[in-house]
């Protein structure tokens, strides 16, 4: 049995002010475009045995920010996230496997009504009590997905060969949760 040391059983709440969900995708085969989502919510149900821990993270797709308004509007369009028809993507946590402070979060990503098993490589950064008395736990995680598997297929051919946007999307998360008895600050 593996546990998240210092995390008491109960429902821990994601603190959006101290969380970042980001992504990067290869652009024109020569550089990467990065973005973040500013509207994220969720919870982690800690049981005392990580194999049984569950949770749900919800991301509002219209909160995407790539630091370019025109690109953001294109990413929100039907060619990518189609935010009018799919305003959210979710990640349902089905268990955690840890060896020390590193391991895997098992879960299911739903994007554009397509649900796929997606594992996250995770690092448990520990638990701390902040100056306001809130108990907090931090995690860093990453994974890669195929856009095509989630029906996000828009692309444009380049004169030199290749395509404008790679299929592979790298996802990184820095997530902070507050304990059931704590409040966010």
TrEMBL record:
InterPro entries recorded: Lipid/polyisoprenoid-bd_YceI, TTHA0802/YceI-like_sf
A Pfam family that the UniProt record links to this protein: YceI
Lipid/polyisoprenoid-binding YceI-like domain sequence ranges: 11-178
Family membership noted in the UniProt record: Belongs to the UPF0312 family.
Annotated protein name in UniProt: Protein YceI
Originating organism: Kocuria varians (Micrococcus varians)
Lineage of producing organism: Bacteria, Bacillati, Actinomycetota, Actinomycetes, Micrococcales
Gene that encodes it: yceI
């Amino acid at each position: 049995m593996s546990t998240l040391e210092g995390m008491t059983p109960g429902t821990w709440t994601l603190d959006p002010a101290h969380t970042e969900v980001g992504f990067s995708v290869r652009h024109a085969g020569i550089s990467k475009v990065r973005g973040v989502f500013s509207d994220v919510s969720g919870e982690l149900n800690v049981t005392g045995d990580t194999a049984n821990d569950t949770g749900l993270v919800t991301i509002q797709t219209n909160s995407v920010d790539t630091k370019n308004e025109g690109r953001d509007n294109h990413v929100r369009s039907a060619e990518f996230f189609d935010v009018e028809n799919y305003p959210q993507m979710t990640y349902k946590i089905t268990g955690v496997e840890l060896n020390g402070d590193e391991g895997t979060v098992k879960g299911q990503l739903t994007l554009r009504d397509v649900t796929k098993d997606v594992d996250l490589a995770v690092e448990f950064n520990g638990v701390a009590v902040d100056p306001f008395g809130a108990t907090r736990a931090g995690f860093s995680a990453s994974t890669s997905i195929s856009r095509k598997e989630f029906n996000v297929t828009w692309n444009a051919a380049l004169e030199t060969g290749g395509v404008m946007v790679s299929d592979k999307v790298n996802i990184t998360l820095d997530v902070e949760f507050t304990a059931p008895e704590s409040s966010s600050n």
